[in-house]
Design a protein that fits this description.
By secondary structure, the chain is α/β, with parallel strands linked by helices. It contains twelve helices and twelve strands. The strands form three sheets. The chain has an eight-stranded parallel sheet. A two-stranded antiparallel sheet has the order 6-7. Strands 10-11 form a two-stranded antiparallel ribbon. Helix 4 packs across helix 6. The two termini are 20 Å apart. Bound molecules: zinc ion (ZN).
């Protein structure tokens, strides 16, 4: 299979998948449960999510491994299961989607910060190394170091993946929009421009933005990023708006139609991989796919 980057360079727009947590909760996952444990305890549900996204038209399907690093798994007492939980995550997605889709393994943040002294760089490196190797063994061909806000942690994860696997790398940060609407930064204060600079410097060739922002805010952010950098393809996975608490649980307001509406704008501003994050479903991905077909 050609790499993601070579497909983009050949002019393709790729469709990503949508939220996983959202669908696991729909399937009965309770607050406080370890999502990665579902790879062992409910493999059919996890495979079912991957199949649903593939059938909706995704070219890249993720793995249920967002919190699968040892440092994070420790809060569930599952740190010694890290290898198996990640291997199984990639195995389940690969088996579900076959050889024609990319298995874009999810590597999320540890929840601890090097700068604060919560975790050492060596410990973090080791944790990402172990996770990345297991994901590759399970069948992933690529990974997204995603929902990151800390440059130190992202750099550490990139190094761990690069030095120990052949996985193609996407790095995706999550930004907040300032109350005056003018600026974007991560919770650590990093701006999109600094994120782009720093990640280019360590040789990352696909950059992304995911989570936190609605589809409209994400489009404004992407405009800013594209004005600054036109040489790097972007991945964009917005949330389906801000979550609202209702009697039936958490609800996300943005519909598949709203996502479809923004696809041309994302494309115009350098997005070459378009999917969704929290609150998005296979219906959102189906709507994105049909818009992408109109462009390409
Ligand atoms: Zn999200």
């Amino acid at each position: 299979m050609d790499s993601i980057l070579s497909k983009i360079k050949a002019g393709k727009i790729l469709v990503g998948d949508g939220g996983w947590g959202t669908l696991l909760i729909k399937a009965g996952m309770q607050a406080g449960e370890c999502p990665e444990l579902w790879n062992i305890e409910h493999p059919d549900i996890v495979s079912g999510i991957a199949i649903a996204y593939k059938e909706a038209g995704a070219d890249l399907v993720s793995t249920n491994s967002f919190g699968g690093n040892r440092v994070k798994l420790k809060s569930y007492g599952l740190e010694n299961e890290a290898k198996e939980l990640n291997r199984k995550a990639a195995y389940l997605t690969r088996k579900a989607v076959g050889e024609k889709c990319h298995v874009l393994a999810s590597i999320g943040p540890s929840g601890k910060f090097i700068m604060m002294g919560d975790v050492s760089e060596d410990e973090l490196y080791e944790s990402f190394r172990e996770q990345a190797i297991a994901l590759e063994k399970g069948g992933a061909d690529s990974c997204t170091i995603e929902t990151m806000s800390d440059l130190d942690e992202a750099r550490c994860a990139v190094r761990a993946v690069k030095e120990n696997t052949k996985l193609e790398i996407v790095v995706s940060f999550t930004f907040m929009r300032s109350s005056d609407g003018e600026r974007f930064n991560t919770i650590m204060g990093t701006t999109p421009e600094v994120f782009i600079q720093e990640m280019k410097q360590i040789g990352v060739s696909i950059l992304g933005v995911n989570c936190t922002l609605s589809v409209e805010d994400m489009c404004v952010l992407l405009q800013k990023m594209y004005a600054y950098e036109k040489g790097v393809p972007f991945l964009v996975y917005p949330n389906a708006g801000q979550p609202q608490i209702t009697d039936e649980g958490i609800r996300y307001p943005e519909t598949p139609e709203m996502f479809a509406k923004y696809v041309p704008g994302f494309y115009k501003n350098g997005a070459r991989i378009i999917g969704g994050c929290c609150g998005t479903t296979p219906e959102h991905i189906r709507a994105i796919r049909s818009e992408v077909e109109k462009i390409s």
